[in-house]
Amino acid sequence: MVKPEKIKNIEILRFLFILSIISCHLRDTLKLFFDSIPWYQILHGSFAQSHRPVDYFFIIAGFFLFMTTDFRQNFCDFAKNKLIRMMPLVIFSVFLFWVFSLFTPIQFPKFEFVFTLLSINCVGLTFKGSINAAAWFVSALFWSMCFYFYLYKITDKKWFNLICACLIFFCYSMYINTTGKMFLNVYSVFNKGILRAFAGIGVGYFISMIYKDNIESIKNWSLNIWQKLGFTVMEGFLLCWLLYYTFLHHFRYKNFLILILAFIGLFWLFLIKKGWISKLLDNNISVFLGQFTFSIFLTHLLVIILWKRCWCETHQSWVIVNPILNLFIVYTVSILFGVLTFYLFEKPITKYLKNKFCARIKA
């Protein structure tokens, strides 16, 4: 399998949109101060679609799944590699929630955490999420990746393309036309989270297929300055539009598929790197920031809950006087705690487990 050159600018997209995920889980904290801080209510509305980057992450994961995976390996080796890459941080996050529940107001559930440790907390077998609600993403990602890997190995490419296209259509259709909480099971079977995963990874597959078939010819494009300017304008417009309507403005249009389509366009423009923005962001700084996103994703909720229960609820007058500083602290601590988790746990434990159990881990 021919692997692509390192696509560094995608990493900055991961980092930017992880800020949106933090915003999503801040909404409950903002509710405490609607009467005292009116613009917190405006922010609460602006964050209505801030959970949407998870769909973008599934698309990115699907792209790299089919760009980097060696499909000659057997299914068990593939599943083992993915579990080693993803589950240690999930287990660590659950452990942190348990530790803090011993001396803070956080309540640790007696049974739900078991489903999280088995990575079955978002496949239609549970009624609600784990203590770490963000862990649903790992469950949906793992099982959908396993499904696509196995299907790709046993199926002719034409049949795989047909099945993949049908999955994208039916999964997005069921998800778009269903209201309610994330862990609701559509028709009592299809969990909303795993519907998002199946659809997003399928989209990522088709992007990878088009990329592999056309990237050599795209590299040979000779563009004049006006054409480069045109690509730059499209990159800038889609990036700003997505950031604005994902978590900087109350997006009232009900069909969120328009956001996913916009991200697909932005993702493709960043892959082919024909505009100045995508080239400018294709650097090691983007890679440096992007490496922290998984740790931030799985630990930020603990920071937000602790801040809400141990500070905001008990020091409301301080929050009212310092509303901007309050948010700055939450975002900063969430990011720094994720960075510390990466260096102190995720990176060393992944290296250790890779050396002990696997010849090679492909993230």
In short:
This protein has 363 residues and is an all-alpha fold. It has helices spanning 9-25, 27-31, 38-46, 53-68, 75-101, 112-117, 136-154, 157-176, 192-219, 225-247, 257-272, 276-280, 284-290, 293-312, 316-321, 323-357, and strands spanning 185-186, 190-191.
If you had to describe this structure to a student in words, what would you say it looks like?
The protein contains 16 helices and two strands. By secondary structure, the protein is mostly helical. The protein has a two-stranded antiparallel sheet with strand order 1-2. A hairpin with a 3-residue loop joins β1 and β2 (190-191).
Q: What order do the helices and strands come in, and which of them pair?
A:
Blueprint: H1 9-25, H2 27-31, H3 38-46, H4 53-68, H5 75-101, H6 112-117, H7 136-154, H8 157-176, E1 185-186, E2 190-191, H9 192-219, H10 225-247, H11 257-272, H12 276-280, H13 284-290, H14 293-312, H15 316-321, H16 323-357
Antiparallel strand pairs: 1-2
Query: Could you state the order of secondary-structure elements as H and E?
Result: HHHHHHHHEEHHHHHHHH
Name the overall outline. globular
Helix content: over 70%
Task: Give the count of helical stretches.
Answer: 16
Provide the gyration radius in Å. 21 Å
Roughly what is the average pLDDT, rounded to an integer?
A: 91
* Strand tally: 2
Estimate what percentage of residues fall within beta strands. Answer: under 5%
Based on helices, strands and strand pairing, what is the structural class? mainly alpha
Query: Within the largest sheet, what's the order of strands?
Result: 1-2
Compute the separation of the termini in Å. Answer: 16 Å
Give a short account of the largest sheet. Answer: 2 strands, antiparallel
Low-confidence stretches: none
